[in-house]
Known about the structure:
It catalyses: tRNA(Phe) + L-phenylalanine + ATP = L-phenylalanyl-tRNA(Phe) + AMP + diphosphate + H(+). By secondary structure, the chain is α+β, with helices and mostly antiparallel strands. The chain folds into 2 domains: 3-92, no CATH class; 111-338, Bira Bifunctional Protein, Domain 2 (BirA Bifunctional Protein, domain 2, 2-Layer Sandwich), CATH 3.30.930. The chain is built from 11 helices and 9 strands. The chain has helices at residues 3-20, 24-35, 40-45, 53-92, 111-124, 139-142, 174-183, 224-239, 292-297, 314-322, 335-338, and strands at 129-130, 136-137, 168-169, 188-197, 209-219, 245-249, 255-264, 281-290, 306-313. The strands form 2 sheets. The chain has a 7-stranded mixed β-sheet, with helices on both faces. The chain has a two-stranded antiparallel sheet with strand order 2-3. β6 and β7 (255-264) form a beta hairpin. α1 (3-20) runs antiparallel to α2 (24-35), α1 (3-20) runs parallel beside α4 and α2 runs antiparallel to α4. The longest helix has 40 residues, at 53-92. It is rod-shaped, with a radius of gyration of 45 Å. Adenosine-5'-[phenylalaninyl-phosphate] binds next to β5, β7, β8, β9 and α10. Adenosine-5'-[phenylalaninyl-phosphate] is lined by residues 158, 172, 174, 198, 200, 206-207, 210, 212, 252, 255, 258, 283-284, 286-288, 309-311, 313, 315-316, 327.
Amino acid sequence: MSIIKEIESIILEAEEALSKAQSEEELDTNKNNFIGKKGKLTQVLKGLASLSVEEKKTVGKLANEAQVKIESIVESKRNKIKEEFYEVKLKSEFFDVLRTEEPKEKGSLHPISQIQYEIEDIFTSMGFSIMDGPEVETDENNFGALNFTEDHPARDMQDTFYTKDGNLLRTHTSAIQVRALRNLKPPFRIIAPGRVFRYEEVDASHENTFYQVEGMVVGEGISIAHLIYTMETLLSRVFRKEVKTRLRPGYFPFVEPGFELDINCLVCEGKGCSVCKQSGWLELLPCGLVHPNVLSHAGLDPKKWSGFAFGLGLDRLVMMRYNIHDIRYFQSGNLRFLKQF
Length: 341
Ligand code: FA5
């Protein structure tokens, strides 16, 4: 084969090999194979010495052109490989700095917590402090100090969960009354919201775990008039409208006299439904004047001090406020229910 033909075939071969290169390394290896020190074209040019001057000129020119051509193929291929590399990198590492975050779903306060906080605001605006107490209580705080004697039949009014060590899950927030009387110096006004527990059959208006807000005012000359005023203020502010109430005598060992304050059922407007057990009325706010025995038990002279107390059923109040037909929704964890508040 003449040198010219050889050079032409090297160009063709180089074109094909370089077009197949996938990486810069492959490209450089191929480049060396053709125009490197030991490359094919370089080898061919070594045979130039045996040619005439005229032939040297022609072949030299051709060899130069071949070298330039191969170099330009290498460079354009190198650019292509780089472009492809960055394209892949850009796609896989794409980050849009202007893209805003998808809105995250926000949680909300449970309706019972919402109304609890509202009630706390109402009472703090009337000069009450907020007290807390433990859910596991002593028999003394839940019953004994509240004038329930050991075998008092009224203990059966509240079916109780006992712990193995002889304590109990508080059946009412009235246990916090005892803590207030022991720890605060009268005169004082407190409310104490909290979760209470009873071993009860669950139905539309009864839970075994529910919430109460206890209230207690102790001072000199505290009377039923103070109690009624406070209850009416509370209800008109919570319901933001006139609510029909009735006061019935009610028995609790720790108040004398004791009352049951019922409200006209707002779910059925008093017509009768499953929440009010068809009576049109809902027992919501038992209350009364603090029993002299409770004051004496706490070391206070009942001739000097008097007071009133109440125990609001918070779940039932929330049911009335939002027209909720079944108390079981509150602990159901049902998001469709909870998202409405
Ligand atoms: C008491 O628990 C007394 N400690 C209330 C009290 C306090 C009276 C201070 C006098 C002075 P009673 O057991 O009635 O009382 O419960 C109070 C309120 O809690 C009821 O009116 C009712 O609204 C609510 N309640 C009672 N049992 C349940 C229950 N199983 N599920 C939901 N709410 C209940």
